[in-house]
Design brief:
The protein is of the alpha+beta class. It folds into two domains: 2-83, Cyclin A, domain 1; 87-187, no CATH class. The protein contains seven helices and nine strands; from the N terminus they run H-H-H-H-H-E-E-E-E-E-E-E-H-H-E-E. Helix 3 (55-62) crosses helix 4 (66-83). The mean pLDDT is 90.
Length: 201
Amino acid sequence: MLVYPSGIDLSSSTLRFLARHLRQRRREIGSRWRRLAAGRQALLTLAHLRCGDTYGQLAAAFNVGIATVYRYIREAVDVLAALAPTLEQAVGTAATKAFVILDGPLLPIDRIAADRPFYSGKHKKHGMNVQVITDPFGRLLWASPALPGAVHDIKAARSHGIPAALAQAGVRCWADKAYQGAGGTVRVPYRGRWDKLSEGQ
């Protein structure tokens, strides 16, 4: 396989952040020696998460085995997941904002054999449904664990307890029509036919 230099549209502070937490993790578990330093493991992980580079491509680029790439990425993802705020913490932060935005983007995945639960009729492709809460400027406050793409947004939001948590904290929330009937403090656009106005109206 040929290897060439490439770029990732992330800041070096992102790389340093992940590398710092990977070094801390290695100290906690008493890891003595690794094929790649923490900084290289962080770069490998970011290349996979941001660019979608395959395990085979990363193995060739970093001169390690595919199994090593898999282990390094899983470890880094676990480290990042442990740093993520809980829904309660995110709602606490959201309470300081004028309002928040709730959305359920579909993260595309490769088609698999048992694909029916992962096919989203709304998006017409296979994927995972992740519920996200952002501030008014679109900055991420919280992301849910992924559910199969066939799960509707309102069902996914309720299964994670999002509408109830926002209502309990009194946080105003805007969402799209997929959240019709969420209730509480979740506001959605009007869903109905646009009737023509009469001349008098």
